[in-house]
Amino acid sequence: MTVRLPLFPLNSVLFPGLVLPLNVFEERYRAMMRDLLKTAEEEPRRFAVVAIRDGHEVAQSAPGMPDPTSVPERGPAAGFGPDPVKAFHGVGCVADAATIRERADGTFEVLATGTTRVRLLSVDASGPFLTAELEELPEEPGDEAGALAEGVLRAFRQYQKRLAGARERSLSTTADLPDQPSVVSYLVAAAMMLDTPTKQRLLQSPDTASRLRDELKLLRAETSIIRTLPSLPASDLTRGPTSLN
């Protein structure tokens, strides 16, 4: 099944079930939000989020280094090259905007939630903002997803403890974390301190069990590293701030 939706590229990966706050100030994305506001409130206001492979989340707005005479790019594909589809990772996530609030200065405050994984088929830059043709990707459980989810949750608790420097106390109880394998896989993928390519790999795993197996290896490796290092991971190196868009 294919669908055409507005496209919002980011320097981060959105997973199903995770909340995405956005501060929208560029004109191309403001135009997108104005268009989404035309949708009736009882209908989903959906757009697709893809991680940027090669390009800039915020387009250049003025001449700068190294060429102060350079002319800033304009238009919906600014910063993404002549063929925007090549600038993005091939699998993204549909976002459902629960809140789109326009400020007095014309910028927007948006709160959305990831819903469904999609494969990027094509990108259209002919309008005021990017749109994309997308193929919805089903979430298959795979083999032994339930048992793997239990193992990932145990490993994730150890990872949490190491990050917090807690050795004797648990940071949360079993009731605080989900037990549905697919939900576990996405929650852990979003919560771990990983770079964008690794998070992207987890997003596009062929099934839940494959994602959980990958996460189990990552959790064990990261926990071992944290145990032997004298300081905590530099989270600012792997997690960017909330998008300015």
Write the layout of secondary structure elements.
Elements: E1 2-10, E2 19-24, H1 27-36, E3 46-51, E4 91-102, E5 108-124, E6 131-136, H2 145-164, H3 181-191, H4 196-203, H5 208-228, H6 235-238
Helix pairs in contact: 2-3, 2-5, 3-5
What does this structure look like?
Residues 57-66, 166-175 and 232-242 have low confidence and may be disordered. With 245 residues, the protein is of the alpha+beta class. It has a five-stranded mixed barrel with strand order 1-3-4-5-6. The chain has two domains: 2-56 and 72-136, Roll (Archaeosine Trna-guanine Transglycosylase, Chain: A, domain 4), CATH 2.30.130.40; 145-228, Methane Monooxygenase Hydroxylase, Chain G, domain 1 (Up-down Bundle), CATH 1.20.58.1480. It has helices spanning 27-36, 145-164, 181-191, 196-203, 208-228, 235-238; strands at residues 2-10, 19-24, 46-51, 91-102, 108-124, 131-136.
